[in-house]
Amino acid sequence: VHCKGGGKKHLRCRLVASDSVLQLFCERMLGFIKTIHPNLRAARMPQKARRRLILTLGEQKRMLTVPNSLLRFIEQEEYALQFIAGQIRFGLLDYYRNIEGSRRDEKEGLVSGVWGQKESDQNIHYRGRSINPYYILCTARPDVDVPMMTEKFGTFIVRISNPLALMERIRLVWRNHELAFADNARIAPVAYTKDELLKKDPYLNVPSDYTYSQKPKSKKCEQEFRYVLTCSDAKQNLSNDLTLDVGDCRDICTLL
């Protein structure tokens, strides 16, 4: 958005939407800005730009908290070596509700929380889920309890020394995948707020990323970060896992 006139004073703002809701927000914001700056000229948003990976303001703050390295716990050495070679395997989020073993979470992908006060009959309870399917890749902070994690998830540990570089490689491949929704790939820390009191919000909105990143407080010891792929069509018969070939990752991934 460019504001013409006024000498050197001008307003420049880039608003890119990856879904219809954010697009509507952008249009409303442009209308508001125009009421303040009558000389405003809105540039048409290119289709390619709209399909770029974007993060909402709330997610950008979470993005800044990504540590310098992450750990991936894997059950078999073969799979760990494949990961380092760039064969990045994701699991369907809904699949974890029925999977056997320590990775099972019957409420995975379901958002729940409470607005109000502790132990009050005036509280508002929320339950919901996204209409879009997700594939996720689970990792953990480097300061996690390693013995506990290896016992639960696998004894082979891959250290990702540059999590954001891996995210970019994943995004570049995912953007051309037939299942991809608007180039929508991201990394997010898990919020351990399921069934807990939520931050006050005048419109009773929950963070949009809770649909793929909310877990109960009892799982907080896992200190999880997730790489997330958003799929475009919930009606498709999706496999329980999806592998992306992002190229050799030996420069950013090592087997510990």
Q: How many beta-strand elements?
A: 12
Radius of gyration: 21 Å
If you average the pLDDT, what whole number results? 75
> What percentage of residues falls in helices of 4 or more residues?
10-25%
Structure classification: alpha+beta
Shape: globular
Unreliable stretches covering 5 or more consecutive residues: 1-21, 40-63
Q: Strand order, main sheet: write it out.
A: 9-10-7-4-11
Strand content: 15-25%
N-to-C span = 48 Å
Number of alpha- plus pi-helical segments: 7
Quickly describe the structure.
The protein has 256 residues and is α+β, with helices and mostly antiparallel strands.
3D architecture notes:
By secondary structure, the chain is of the alpha+beta class. The protein is globular and about 55 Å long. 25% of the residues are buried. Helix content is 23%, strand content 25%. The chain has helices spanning 20-36, 47-50, 57-63, 77-84, 146-153, 163-174, 210-213, and strands at 2-3, 40-41, 70-74, 87-92, 111-115, 124-128, 134-140, 156-160, 180-189, 224-231, 241-245, 253-255. Strands 9-10-7-4-11 form a five-stranded antiparallel β-sheet. Strands 3-8-12 form a three-stranded antiparallel β-sheet. Strands 1-2 form a two-stranded antiparallel sheet.
Please render the helix and strand layout as text:
Blueprint: E1 2-3, H1 20-36, E2 40-41, H2 47-50, H3 57-63, E3 70-74, H4 77-84, E4 87-92, E5 111-115, E6 124-128, E7 134-140, H5 146-153, E8 156-160, H6 163-174, E9 180-189, H7 210-213, E10 224-231, E11 241-245, E12 253-255
Antiparallel strand pairs: 1-2, 3-8, 4-7, 4-11, 5-6, 7-10, 8-12, 9-10
